[in-house]
Amino acid sequence: MHKKVLGRYGNDRGHWVGNGFPVRSLFSYSTLGQHLSPFLLLDYAGPHQFQPTEERRGVGEHPHRGFETVTIVYDGEVEHRDSSGGGGTIGPGDVQWMTAGSGIVHQEFHSPAYAATGGAFRMVQLWVNLPAKDKQAPPAYQTLLAKNIPTVELPDGAGSLRVIAGEYGHTQGPAQVFSPLNVWDVQLAQGASVTLSLPEGHNAAVVSLEGQLSINDAQELGSAQLVLLEHKGTEVSIHAHVQSSLLVLTGAPLNEPIEGYGPFVMNTRAEIRQAIEDFSNGRFGGIPS
């Protein structure tokens, strides 16, 4: 049974995060937080062409609590450091999966090597909610290099699917997660069609990054757009009119209150006030020099 399309969403108006990330927010916890639980937000940065520079491009130290950030790089390089001691540089195909948990301070910049040469830049940042019982988990950082992310070839030469988190068929993704979810990075050839099986009872969305798609032989989907799928059903059919890049997100809903304030996502207003107080008093720690 196909999951019905409940709506199409997009954003043609972008904004800058710092001076290094020109993003379009395709959904946030204030709009689709419950409908797409456990996913909270998706920012799509680029495509953008940066000129060479010696300037430090990116966003400096800032806090998070109560969720995870997932950064997927398609073009360019991102350098990350945080107060848990985690960090590193990721490039095309690589992913960083950061657990803010009880509280973290981090920074994200273009790598010096990429800044010096400039060039194409494209990435996604996804926020994944933590269950209430895990919101005070210790902060952590996972580097998922492209070479360690398994790729499944789709039938009839339709394209490929990388399993970043969760599983597809018998292929398991490398990300360690706190609740059942899938993050699939899919590339489809022009004219290709594929039907994907999704877990029963999961919330789900198809996010078109670049290309032109038809969903379930009906809903058209362009670049930087997504479709929200019905909770019921276990399949979605996707046809690519041109070569296309997309994400498929599915997750078991947490069915818990979402209370957010900027970089903090908790379950109650009291927890938000506590997060602000803890950060203001230096309890999130600092980035090692």
What does the radius of gyration come to? Answer: 18 Å
Instruction: Please tell me the overall pLDDT.
Output: 97
Oligomer: single chain
Give the proportion of residues in helices.
under 10%
**Strand arrangement in the largest pleated sheet:** 1-22-19-24-17-14-13
> What is the helix tally?
2
Structural class: mainly beta
What is the number of E strands? Answer: 26
N-to-C SSE string, H for helix and E for strand: EEEEEEEEEEHEEEEEEEEEEEEEEEEH
Spatial gap, N to C terminus: 54 Å
Shape: globular
Low-confidence stretches: none
Strand count, sense and barrel status of the largest sheet are: 7 strands, antiparallel
Proportion in β-strands: over 45%
Give your account of this protein's structure.
Helix content is 6%, strand content 51%. The chain has 289 residues and is mainly beta. A 7-stranded antiparallel sheet has the order 1-22-19-24-17-14-13, with no helix packed on it. It has a 7-stranded antiparallel sheet with strand order 2-3-4-11-6-9-12. The mean pLDDT is 97.
Can you give me a brief rundown of this structure?
The chain has helices at 112-117, 269-280, and strands spanning 5-10, 15-17, 21-27, 39-50, 58-64, 67-75, 78-82, 87-90, 95-99, 104-110, 119-129, 140-144, 151-153, 159-165, 167-168, 171-172, 181-188, 193-197, 203-210, 213-215, 219-221, 225-229, 235-240, 244-251, 259-261, 264-266. It is mainly beta and 289 residues long.
List the helices and strands and how they pair.
Elements: E1 5-10, E2 15-17, E3 21-27, E4 39-50, E5 58-64, E6 67-75, E7 78-82, E8 87-90, E9 95-99, E10 104-110, H1 112-117, E11 119-129, E12 140-144, E13 151-153, E14 159-165, E15 167-168, E16 171-172, E17 181-188, E18 193-197, E19 203-210, E20 213-215, E21 219-221, E22 225-229, E23 235-240, E24 244-251, E25 259-261, E26 264-266, H2 269-280
Antiparallel strand pairs: 1-22, 2-3, 3-4, 4-11, 5-10, 6-9, 6-11, 7-8, 7-10, 9-12, 13-14, 14-17, 15-16, 17-24, 18-23, 19-22, 19-24, 20-21, 20-23, 25-26
